[in-house]
Amino acid sequence: MYLARVIGRVVATARYPGMEEVILQWIQPLDERGEDQGDALVACAAIPSGPGDFVHYVDGREGAMALAETFVPVDAAIIGFIEEATVLGQKIDGIQSTNEGTR
Amino acid sequence: MFLADVIGTVVSPVQIPELEGQTLLLLRPVTPDGHATGRTRIGIDKAGAGEGDRVIVLDEGNGGRQILGDPRAAVKTVVLGVVDYVEENGKLQYDHRNSAKLAPLG
Amino acid sequence: MLIGQVVGSVVATQKDEKLANRKLLLVQVHDLNNEPKEQYVVAIDSVGAGTNDMVLYATGSSARQTDITDGRPCDAVVMAVIDSWDLGGDNIYEKWAR
C-alpha cells in the first residue's frame, strides 16, 4: 500500500463488464516528504475521493478485491482517504489534503 | 518479507471496511545496516510497533489476508514483528536496545 | 492501470493453445500528459478496442480476471476504452474532439 495524491479523472464508457459504476482517477504516488515517487497511474476509487485528495492505494490483484465486483481486471485501487500524516514527529505539509485540484 | 523503519503514522478517517480500527504505519524499507532502499509504503500494524522501531514487513496479499483473518480483504502490506537485533555474517548490524535515532528526511 | 494507444495488432499462428482466438493488441504506452513513450505492451483485448483508441490496461495477475483471460497465460489486458481525461481541471485528452 502506498501514499498518493489524486490528480485527475478518467472517463471511459466501454469497459470490462461488472465495473460500469467504478470511478477511475489519475493518482501520483508520493514519498514520505509528500514529493512525487515514480510515475502516475490510473486507479479505481473504492472510497469517495477527488482531485487534490491525499489517499492511499493498493496495487496488484488486491486492487480488484476492494471493489463491489471482485472478478474484474483491476490492478490498482484507492482504499483510504488520508487526513493527516505524521513523519518523525512532524506533520507533513505537502501531504495534507487540499480540495483544490493540483497538477 | 523485508526490513523497514517505522517513520510515521497515517490518519485515514474514510477507508475500506477491512481497514477500520487498524493502525496504519509509514514504512521506509532499509538494508540490514539501515540505509533506505525501495519505495516508502503504508502497512497495517499487527505487532504493536511505533515510530523509530525497525520491523519485519510482509508485502503480499495472501499472507496479509491470513494475518488479518479476512480472506476477502483488499490489503497487502502488514507489519509482522518488531526487530530486536539483526546479525549479518556474524556481525551485529542492528540492536534495538542501542539503535541510533532515525535519519532525518533527506 | 496505465494508458496507451492501440497502434496495431499482433498475429501469431504458432502459440500456446490457450491463446487461441484471443485478439492481441499492440499498445504504445502514453504518460499522463498523453505523450507517447518508447514502451510497448502486447495485451489481450476484453472490450472490443480498435486501432487508434486510447485504452486502459491492467497488468499482472489482475489481467487474468476476465472471462476471456481466466486461466490463460496473459499478463496484460485492455479493460477500458478511454473517452477523456483531465488533470487539475485541464482537459488532456478528448476522444471525440479529433
Produce a short descriptive summary.
The complex is a heterotrimer of chains A (103), B (106) and C (98). Chain A is mainly beta and 103 residues long. Chain A is built from one helix and eight strands, in the order βββββαβββ.
Q: What's the number of structural domains of chain C?
A: 1
The count of DSSP E runs of length 2 or more, i.e. the number of strands of chain C, is: 7
CATH C-level class of chain C is Mainly Beta
CATH topology of chain C: OB fold (Dihydrolipoamide Acetyltransferase, E2P)
What's the alpha carbon Rg of chain C, rounded to whole Å? 14 Å
Report on the structure:
Chain A is mainly beta. Chain A has one helix at 62-65, and strands spanning 2-11, 14-15, 23-29, 41-45, 54-59, 76-81, 84-87, 90-91. In chain A, the strands form 2 sheets. In chain A, strands 1-3-4-6-5 form a 5-stranded mixed β-barrel. Chain B is mainly β. Chain B has 1 helix and 8 strands; from the N terminus they run E-E-E-E-E-H-E-E-E. Chain B has one helix at residues 61-68, and strands at residues 2-11, 14-15, 24-29, 41-45, 54-59, 77-82, 85-88, 91-95. In chain B, the strands form 2 sheets. In chain B, strands 1-3-4-6-5 form a 5-stranded mixed beta barrel. In chain B, a hairpin with a 2-residue loop joins strand 7 (85-88) and strand 8. In chain C, the strands form 2 sheets. Chain C has a 5-stranded mixed β-barrel with strand order 1-2-3-5-4. In chain C, strands 6-7 form a two-stranded antiparallel ribbon. Chain C is elongated. By secondary structure, chain C is an all-beta fold. Chain C has a single domain (2-97), classed as Beta Barrel (OB fold (Dihydrolipoamide Acetyltransferase, E2P)). Chain C is 0% helix and 48% strand. Chains in contact: A-B, A-C. The interface between A and B is medium-sized, with 36 and 30 residues. Strand 7 (84-87) of chain A pairs antiparallel with strand 1 of chain B, so a sheet runs across the interface.
